[in-house]
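pasting for ref
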Amino acid sequence: MTQLELARKGNISPLMKQVAEKEELEAELIRQGVAQGTIVIPANIRHGNLDPCGIGKGLCTKVNANIGTSSDYGTIDTELEKLRVAMEYKADTVMDLSTGGDIAAIRRSLITSCPLPLGTVPIYQVGIEAIERRGAIVNMTAEDLFATIEQQAEDGVDFMTVHCGVTQRALAQLRSQGRLTNVVSRGGAFLIGWMLHQQQENPLYEQYDRLLEIARRYDVTLSLGDGMRPGSLADATDRSQIEELLTIAELVERAWSAGVQVMVEGPGHVPLDQITANVQLEKRLCRGAPFYVLGPLVTDIAAGYDHIAAAIGGAIAAAAGADFLCYVTPSEHLSLPDAEDVKEGVIGARIAAHAADIVKGAKGAADWDSKMSIARRNLDWEEQIKLSLDPAKAHQVHTRFATKGATCSMCGPYCALALVDKYLGISAAKCDL
């Protein structure tokens, strides 16, 4: 049985117990969330070395790191290094988005080396192989698509982005209203090209029960992808995006009925004042299914700094109820990310997730900040560095300039904390709140 089916029968599985321990919550609360569909535990039965995590209501906001090759660059070794960096900086999950090289071999190598839940977008492999074998993406078949999905499930992929909501109706909305950036989802574009050429409905929608059967057999969590997501602020919250979300809401219910875990993917570029509404809309329509957002990016002009634009949007989205942040790296819109980009992306998303967890009241979130404040109050540099998200960088920055005494090089002898301690006669070393 899947984790969803076990939870509905009242059974607390070993995976649920592990998630509960990590979250410092009662296992029964995890079971209830999984049973209701508001929590997912991506855990393919064939992923042997998995250290599971829970995603959803009442849990800490999770962060995903995308890695993978392109047709221009990347090997198994480059992706294993990105995986190492993603794990070092504490991403909760990783997705392999490879579109170059031996995609299957890269994926299998990553799964073997990855204790984190690992996701994929199967249409990428299908599309690339269709070009190689059949001359064009539009020549792929439904059988190609489902065979690849089953192959990836057999390999141990824990969650899959599937663009089931890219339907002929959503495409009609796109045509009727028009957009500044049309479709920016690569998977969505592959399917739209196929649908237009073949004059058929999306097989992931038309044969959704077949997809559910594969997902249930391996307990793969479906991540219902947003192929119609906005790629610019001008296109945010338009009819195409909402039409797709309405379809996804129906598919969430069908997945639950089939005993399949499911989450929903959210928009990419959204103005600040629309983010909360987007989260509330997904939660309402999809009945609390976990929400997985790409950023969202709050401005279109941050090329080279899109990890910052995404962290701003991610913090707002997560505080409003989004459960899962897909990181964005500095190279977004510019190039394939390298290992350093992966690091910057993970840290940016973790800052956003943690800021939101303080607002959500996640267990231990505010305590971490209090400990850092105490260390700062006490001018305890060793403890401040230890408590930081990136201790190595914190140490490097603090020691960059030589100083005299206990203060840093910013204020030196004019440190406000040190001066007030001196004149009030308070011993900073004894401050523990």
